[in-house]
Design a protein that fits this description.
alpha+beta, 55% helix, 127 residues, single chain, 4-stranded mixed β-sheet
């Protein structure tokens, strides 16, 4: 079921998702392969890079409603407990200041490149 929903979402991406996806695909040459509309831990995330353990979510205005914002908070906690970093951007940010959005994503990926795998493993077992 989740795969069917994800497939449908990939076919009906928002203009902001299309714009970001075009840029994320260019990162493959740097070793960051992003997938879009990925079923993960009971959710479907907008974009995920498993090598960087990074999820990117683009939110429309409905995410500003208290009820939806609380669901997003819980969802982010679940994903972060699973070892992923979660970046959230408003659609309007992608429209009005894409360079700033891209800078935040680039910095997160730079940090992922610098974080040695053994530190991540050690940190996971140290808790």
């Amino acid at each position: 079921m989740a795969n069917e929903i994800a497939r449908k979402l990939r076919k009906t991406m928002t203009p902001q998702e299309v714009k970001l996806w075009a840029h994320l695909r260019l990162l493959k040459s740097r070793g960051f392969k992003f997938r879009r509309q990925v079923p993960l831990r009971g959710y479907i995330v907008d974009f995920a890079c498993f090598s960087a353990r990074l999820i990117i979510e683009l939110d429309g205005s409905q995410h500003g409603v208290d009820e939806h914002a609380e669901r997003d908070r819980v969802r982010d906690e679940v994903l972060e407990r699973g070892g992923f970093g979660v970046l959230r951007f408003w659609n309007v940010e992608v429209d009005r200041d894409f360079d700033a959005v891209w800078m935040v994503i680039s910095e997160a990926l730079r940090n992922a490149e610098l974080k040695p795998r053994w530190v991540e493993e050690f940190g996971r077992h140290a808790n």
